Amino acid sequence: MLNDTRGALWWSYQLLNPDIRRCFEFCNIFPRRSGFSRQELVRLWIAGGFVKTSCSEKDMEDVAEDYIQELLSCSFLQPVVDGSFGSDFTIHDLLHDLLDKVTGSDYFRIENETSQRGNKSWKGDIPQDVRHLFIRIYGGELITDKILGLENLRTLILYYGGKDTTVDEKFIECICKMLPNLRVLAIDLSWANTGPNFSLPESISQLKHLRYLSFIAYSCMVILPIALAKLHHIQMLDFVDCEFLGFGSTGLINLRHLFLRTKVKCPNIGRLVSLQTVPTFEVRNEQGYEVKQVSDLNKLRGRLEISGLENVTSKEEALEANLAAKEGLTYFKLKWHGGDDSTRCSPEVEAEVLEGLRHPVGLEVLDIEHFKGSSYPDWMLSAQNGERKDPQLHTLRFSFCGPRGPGPELAAFPCLRVLVLYDCIWDALPDNLEQLKSLKLLIIHHCVNIKALPTLPHSLEEFCVNYGDAEFRKNCQTVGHPCWLKSSTSPRKNLHLHT
User: N or C: which end of the chain has fewer CB within 10 A?
Assistant: First the structure.
């Protein structure tokens, strides 16, 4: 039976499109029974040059997604049910056996100091012609000399584990100097002993073919060299867990994905017109950090947060962001900084700025934080009047906003399913909530000035009041009180009140 199963797997493997087959073979770089994320897989495939597209209108990411769907349909990729540690997929051991045979010495995994591909009798040798290498180190010394002699290496993924593992900056420098053909370099120092600072070497610029650079370090300050901007072919930079870094964007013309913290200094990001991922952009009163920097970033997809909006001083300036053209966005957050009101524009100006930050059609989540404008934008009302619909917007969140909340503008979102009010200083909820015919969840968290309820929509399934005015919370639980009656009008399925 086992041989029959292996024969069937081999036959299915042979039937795969050659490009998809190459992408699936790359999955052999991951240890057995480990998970990997969808986005990680897509970006590694693209960086490795495995994704081919003959249609100039279709992004490589979309082609790679098609590959994933094909591999899922034939069960070569298996979904991770619980999504543990951000993993989406895994591969069955029998398929790993198949990949070990068909990839030969092209792929090599060292899962600890004494085990290679699960082989406990491994003697420490690495094939000289290996092209893709994964090493997980739990302690002791790295087999440095053997790695640095691998002239054909294209992918190097290093995971350091164990507090006794010390990482030498000189080793990273040697990688840059002696492995010039690398296309993928991923180094995870999450559990390594790095000291307070860690510097990437200037020799990083010698990796002329590098497409993918990931450097994870939880506990140290990472210093990036100016030479990073010389990586003209780089497509993905991931420094999301680093404490501080700063570099120029000049020359990174092929960069598609940028994962950074908000403390990062990266001026003139608007030159990176191939960008698809940049989770946070902070507007500053500095040249190169104006809101217009995002004007031409129309390939952005997924999530975008724009903070520092108190530094935008007019509707005309806000319009320069050209947000409506970014149709690939699904989550959009607009954030003014809290704190001293003396550093902010007037409420009238803030209202004008929000007017100019009209989100694109197709958005699913809109998140507005620390907005204190005198009114809400006309584009909400125009949607309500039928000039524009937002059929996909299902979640609207207001945090630390006030003193005025939206009124009739809320009716602009007829498909809204979730409405969250978090620590807002509004005096009342909008009167027209009952017009939100699709609303399922209403959360009011620590909104101390709200003391009464309007009529709620019949579609509401869950109503949550957390903290806030004590009398209001009591009234919502008192049978017969107007607040109780209004919160109980839904033909409830699972209507809950959390206080």
Answer: N
Q: Are 104 and 128 in contact (CB under 8 A)?
A: no
For residue range 306-360, list pLDDT tens digits in order. 999 999 999 999 999 999 999 999 999 999 987 777 778 899 999 999 999 998 9
The answer to whether the beta carbons of residues 381 and 412 sit under 8 Å apart is yes
Torsion, Cα 60 156 215 281, to 10 degrees, reads -10
Residue with tokens 């997924």: 302
C-alpha 277/C-alpha 279 separation (Å) is 6
User: How many CB atoms within 10 Å of residue 355?
Assistant: 18
- Residue bearing tokens 């100006």: 349
28 domain-assigned: yes
Long-range contacts made by residues 100-108, C-beta under 8 angstroms, separation at least 24? 100/28, 102/13, 102/25, 103/25, 103/28, 105/129, 105/130, 106/25, 106/130, 106/131, 106/132, 107/25, 107/26, 107/28, 107/29, 107/131, 107/132, 107/133, 108/132, 108/133, 108/134
CATH of the domain at 60: 1.10.10.10
Rounded Cα distance, 369 and 422, in Å: 9
Show the domain range for 6.
2-94
Q: Is 49 inside any structural domain?
A: yes
How many domains does one find in the chain? 1
Residue 103 lies in a domain: no
- For residues 283-293, one letter each, b for 16 or more C-beta atoms within 10 angstroms of the residue's C-beta and e for the rest, the string is beeeeebbbeb
60 located within any domain? yes
The amino acid present at 220, given as its one-letter code, is C
Give pLDDT tens digits for 374-421.
988 887 765 544 455 567 889 999 999 988 888 777 777 888 999 999
What pLDDT, on a 0 to 100 scale, did the predictor assign at position 243?
53
The Cα 238–Cα 216 span in angstroms is 8
Instruction: State how far the Cα of 33 lies from the Cα of 31, in Å rounded to an integer.
Output: 6
